[in-house]
Design brief:
Blueprint (H helix, E strand, L loop, with lengths): L10 H40 L7 E6 L6 E8 L2 E9 L13 E4 L9 E2 L1 H23 L5 H23 L2 H5 L19 E8 L2 E11 L7 H7 L4 H10 L10 E3 L2 E14 L1 H28 L8
Amino acid sequence: MSNVIWPSLPPDQLKKAEESTLQRELQWLLRSLQGTFTTLKDGLEECSTLLAPIEPGSTLVLSSMRSENVKGFITRVGSRIVKADIQLRFATLPPPPKQQSYSLRLSTQASAPSFMIPQLTNTRNLLAQALDVIDTGRWTGNSHDASFISGQLRLLLDLILEAKQSLKGSDELINKWYENPLDERTFDPPLPQNLALNLSISENAIVAHFRTLHLAQQNTPTSFTTEALSGLSIRQRLGLAARLPDHDESDRVFSFRGQEVRVREKARVESQDPSLMALMAKLNALEYGVKIARRALAAVMDIDDSEND
């Protein structure tokens, strides 16, 4: 089969015909991308709903797998923890008299600070920005300008990728647990001075780190060390070091609440969050849709799209 135009056109007319055809194809694609924007907006709104502060939220179990160190649950509504009941059994965190474990319960007082998860707050803000990008591409900007639409798709893809990365988390964020300690008044009774609790997101799961601390200068007489050893007998205090399990931070010194401290005991528990897993799946689909749109537009515009791979 031949694809030669008959009757044949002179080279100059053929070039004009090709340019005219390409321009019509570009305008058709730009019109169809308006429908793509609508579909992407629906998907982003579904993602935002998964992070919206809507009751009853997600109740997740926090339990250490091979020990009784951590047992309990938390309830997440949007990017905030609204309920928590956790039982800790650490050798360096003695429970109150007549109790078998140390209880952490979220304060219900109106003046108590909110227990926020910054990664989820950041993800929700990124989704809001992505929705603004789509509205700009549909209503505010020139929908017939291929360069403008290409730029909006690039910006939209960047925001989606950043939202995905926020849900995946990073080791750097987890390792800087000492920089922004949780307000003690978040719990009732307040967190003890020698306990650090950090909540983060890693691979769509809620990850909680519990650390008991002691001053790096052991001979410094402060309430920090007194509280850490209160409730322990002399025999327990003498034998404590030999029984403590090793961990990856035992030889490091951290600056925590203005004091140089070491980590005595450390526990890590995680709980998969179905809503966050669904959110990641939707973001993956949105990423794929945006890449397809960018690839099609780049082909018609005859520009390099290697960065889209």
